[in-house]
Amino acid sequence: MTEDENQPLLDESGRHHxxxxxxxxxxxxxxxxxxxxxxxxxxxxKLISGRYESLDYECDESEISHMEEKRLGHQHTRRLAVLxxxxxxxIGICTGLVAVFVDFAVKKLTKFKFxxxxxxxxxxxxxxxxxxxxxxxxAINMSFVLVSGLLILWxxxxxxxxxxxxxxxxxxxxxxxxxxLKALIAKVLGVIFSVSGGLAVGKEGPMIHSGSIIAGGxxxxxxxxxxxxxxIFKHFRTxxxxxxxxxxxxxxxxxxxxxxxxxxxxxxxxxGASFFNQQLTWFIFFASMVSTFTLNVVMSAxxxxxxxxxxxxxxxxxxxxxxxxxWFELPIFILMGVMGGVFGALFNELNLRLTKFRHHYxxxxxxxxIEVLLVAATTVVIAFVLIFTTMNECRPIKTQVELNSPTxxxxxxxxxYNTMATIVFSTPENAVRNLFHSEIGTYKAWSLLAFCxxxxxxxxxxxxIIVSSGxxxxxxxxxxxxxxxxxxxxxxxxxxxxxxxxKYALFGAASQLGGIMRMTISLAVILIExxxxxxxxxxxxxxxxxxxxxxxxxxxxxxxxxxxxxxxPFLPWQxxxxxxxxxxxxxMSAPVTKLKTVEKVETIFRVLxxxxxxxxxxVDHHADETNNERAGTFQGIILRxxxxxxxxxxxxxxxxxxxxxxxxxxxxxESYPRHPSIESVHLTDEERELYCDLRPYMNLAYTVSHxxxxxxxxxxxxxxxxxxxxxxxxxxxxVGMITRKDLARFRMIHKKxxxxxxxxxxxx
Amino acid sequence: MTEDENQPLLDESGRHHxxxxxxxxxxxxxxxxxxxxxxxxxxxxKLISGRYESLDYECDESEISHMEEKRLGHQHTRRLAVLxxxxxxxIGICTGLVAVFVDFAVKKLTKFKFxxxxxxxxxxxxxxxxxxxxxxxxAINMSFVLVSGLLILWxxxxxxxxxxxxxxxxxxxxxxxxxxLKALIAKVLGVIFSVSGGLAVGKEGPMIHSGSIIAGGxxxxxxxxxxxxxxIFKHFRTxxxxxxxxxxxxxxxxxxxxxxxxxxxxxxxxxGASFFNQQLTWFIFFASMVSTFTLNVVMSAxxxxxxxxxxxxxxxxxxxxxxxxxWFELPIFILMGVMGGVFGALFNELNLRLTKFRHHYxxxxxxxxIEVLLVAATTVVIAFVLIFTTMNECRPIKTQVELNSPTxxxxxxxxxYNTMATIVFSTPENAVRNLFHSEIGTYKAWSLLAFCxxxxxxxxxxxxIIVSSGxxxxxxxxxxxxxxxxxxxxxxxxxxxxxxxxKYALFGAASQLGGIMRMTISLAVILIExxxxxxxxxxxxxxxxxxxxxxxxxxxxxxxxxxxxxxxPFLPWQxxxxxxxxxxxxxMSAPVTKLKTVEKVETIFRVLxxxxxxxxxxVDHHADETNNERAGTFQGIILRxxxxxxxxxxxxxxxxxxxxxxxxxxxxxESYPRHPSIESVHLTDEERELYCDLRPYMNLAYTVSHxxxxxxxxxxxxxxxxxxxxxxxxxxxxVGMITRKDLARFRMIHKKxxxxxxxxxxxx
Lengths: 764, 764
Known about the structure:
Low-confidence stretches of chain A: 1-44
Subcellular location (chains A, B): Membrane
Mean pLDDT of chain A: 80
Distance between the termini of chain A: 28 Å
Membrane topology (chains A, B): Multi-pass membrane protein
Oligomer: homodimer
Number of strands of chain A: 19
Domain CBS (chains A, B): 588-658, 694-756
Transmembrane segments (chains A, B): 80-102, 134-154, 245-268, 280-302, 323-346, 366-388, 445-466, 534-551
Largest sheet of chain A: 3 strands, mixed
CATH class of the largest domain in chain A: Alpha Beta
GO molecular function (chains A, B): chloride channel activity
């Protein structure tokens, strides 16, 4: 055993080490100065948090794993395949049902609210007590939103849309509690109350998170929260299997939310998958398909026309039929893309600043709750102000009947409805549909402009307060309103040509969404599927592409900003070319605490207590004979939880004995995913003098030469889903260890056309 | 240097080695017998051909590559990104234009043929010489098809649909001439003449191949055939970059053929990509988008309504609007999926047998040409027989006018048309559209049945003759005809309910296509985009899934069968679990010819002349001092073409000298992709006594421990795009080498519910 166990070497939390290696890098005479870019040193929020663990997507190649395979044989493999289909089916059905539940509950609560207030209003119109219904309205909204806020205090992992967390999970970072049952409950109930409470939020983002939790839960066949275990599906209790199911769950969530099963698959691929593989894609596709289908069947049944499968998703933009476009409209679409990119970047920047402000000054529970209530009240007040300033905008009710969308009469004569009240007071989904399909002349330009600005600010403020909230629909609504404005403008400029304002609203919506989220292909397909029109697919793609290019000039995508703010060691798709000047030597943590293939129990126990690392390289046990610290060739990697299990199960031998009673994979799976800590292990003095044979349990890990450069290490991490990568020298001796945090530290910043490398610090 | 250079060890063509290692594996006492499956030994066509080279998708990490990066700096990276966009734009435009050209030419030739024959027919109807127009018809078709056949004799790489070849290329196998300019010419002209010649072929598959060739050509900025070089884009002259562009070209081809840009992206991913990455997907998406758009603009202009972007693809199924489905139809769709799977498997089996027969007995050029002419003549004769037996099936012409589809009057009264003649004599695209959209009662059940059976057999016979031909449309047509039969059957069973026969034709078509090709998500999206209807998306997915599951029970997908027939070392998506019992030791080629970091010119020259390997491991040059053959730790890999370039450029040093004049990457790129052979190198005796320093040029390759098992090696090969993988022992000494052929040798066979492992031989 080496003598350096007390040094934080393979330290996933070692800030001082980080700077050591950076300095080492800078002062080396390897003539590899960075040119053409400057290095920004880590300050403030520019940190990688040490509290995130990595997930382990590597294949297990330990001796016991081969033994299990051999024992279970061929039939087992086939049984697992069938089980996978079953799980995918269940994921699809459950996700679909949860989506139906959310939709049903929101409708019921909203209806209750409307009828109650309408009732009061009717009484008051005659009695001149208009402030009573308004106060009632505010009170109801505030209490709904309060429920949502309290749920997040109960389970903070359910805050926001959950998409950043799901992205991180699929990227390989274990975000705490992100897949817990508590998070599901808080998410589902929370989103119901925040949408019903009239906030500028959507229920689609949370559906994606909910789908992921459902998938994670079902695939494990047990719940740590409820302390039950069905003992089925136990073979899927590995990070690798669980990730596959979770990506299917996320896809099923998208499929249910937007009625877009193909979009769901692409979302899972675009946002998560460095692990694309044909078979998995097919499984994901199946889950998405089942999810849409379940939602479709149940929603049709609820709406009273069982069997007519016509409600594919939670959101229904209404079909765009026979809405052609002409080639001379393309420059306008491109311009709209630029606008979406600029507005999106502005939105992201404002929300970033607000989030930082909130991070510093709004910490305590009661302040957070007051902010939530304040947002709820402000939303209503602003809505009223908007309506009163546009009181006279009444339209005949007939077109809205076709859209099957609720209308609000307010001060309008009978047979007419108040246009602004209808988009302000209905759910955001209905508002989007109205903007997409109302005939020309429905909205006045100034009203739309006011609405657009107000809704932009409200949405920006709302995302980040402690409720469960989605950003898709609000983004679409902002974009639809300015898009429709563009349409009205075109109509006024060229009165001889008919410009369908709904079409422009759609492109505005796509552009705004693209400018904020910066996704391309999945958004395009989601929008195509949700509008049900292929013909508009091409301009939608163009608009999204331009919006992304424009937005990327200014800053990062919305979710990426939030991931960075949370100091998650997120690995981007590929390393930048600049980083090829960094070699394994300058990136790795070194020296590393090594264990020998046959190691003394006492040593293992001491190492585990002294260090917080999650993996240890195992080296040849003849090493100590030479008394050379670096000697001992690399044999494999053993994980912390495996060592703890070995200690807990007393799988010990005496020095000259050889191991006979192997632990099985079941022993190691028992406690997945919440492994006991080393503090739970108590050993007698006799036990400490015994030995552990680690060879049957260690995994044959990948190694990399110390000459390798960052791009190669990057492609191994992403392509193979690694958690630990051992750096070896020419003689296959361990010289260092690279973990996800070592790579995530180097981040490229593209801002206003400039590119620079940032090296982030690592915090605890 | 070791003494074993003359042994074919790292032999990419060493059949005897293969069996050695298999025997070694079988006789080892490692208790790893295969259970639950039996091993089939390689016989006959069950071979991996040694003539295929692998492509190298690994990142270059040689010293000179880092030097170039440093020299070119940051601006260069940005310039490359811009260049990539430009190339993607060009790929999209050119692919779109080629698609337009094919479509235009087919239309003109078909029109010429029809008007000529119609002319003769009109003359002859009065003069009772009906056989003259028929003979004319046969003669025209035969001469068109003859042209197509002769083109393939000129460039055999253009035979068939080209999809298997593109799949192989994207998988990492260099199929000879697959991306040559000659292949493009033969493909494009060939498909025009074979479609115009009335064969049961489509022009969509060849579009995918054409797109790939266009992309390969444009991205290189030069042509080896035409011997010109624009000297731009030279930085993209690596296998890795070229593959990215080719996948974009394939996607653009799909986008142009089906008007399905999203389907194109998914096709590239499903069929090719083990290299999924967000940025590349976006590039591919852009190329597809541009391709559809170009086609759309030009086709609209040709059709006389410039600016109205309404012709998204070559094929146009006609929009399915307001075609709902009820839940009780789902079991029927599932049943249709089963039928598609069974018929597809039958088709694949018959074609496989026919191809084997053809392989053995139809080899000579004149026999091949006679077969082509025979197929052309038979197709026409059968068409006439079909028409004469269904002579009285006339329908009023009005519905066809709406479909904008040509009709054939034949013996029908004026104002009516002959239904069978219309589907038999128009292009397959028109026939599919007719079956999808004609009103109920248009076709008689017996006629459809006869047509279906006849077309099934004709298609099966036609695929494989030496013409350029696609299988998409014929498959759709077969499926559409039996699907419509099912619709008619439903209508007769339940006369009270309206079953749209066109909808059933669509599901039949989807099912048949899925049963033959076994693709899922890309086919689903292509069909959704081509029919323009999202509502039918869900049942289409169900049908495709069921068809694939059913078909897979019997045999492999059509293209996979053809890839296997061509003995291509194709790597599937993932290794099967069984193979985890094979370790690197039993799979690798060993021993391996190694070179030292500073190696004598004479030795290099001798090794290159004696061996045909494409990569050599480089070991520490202090190795020989110990005089131990296995000594010398692994340093990197050097490729054959690099060594040849070093020799050709006389980059030599004397023993105690050190290298000063480095070759640059440009020197190595000069001859890409057709590198000179070692026979072109002539060295003087003095030169042979000098040394080469290989260190600046060798690539830091990945290594794997000799304990590793096949699944791990597999995921490295697929995930990292490897060509060579060096196997090292505990001390980092080279013990063997694994190439693609070593992995492709082990193939899982799923047939009629049984699973077995086949070990294929390697042929020369």
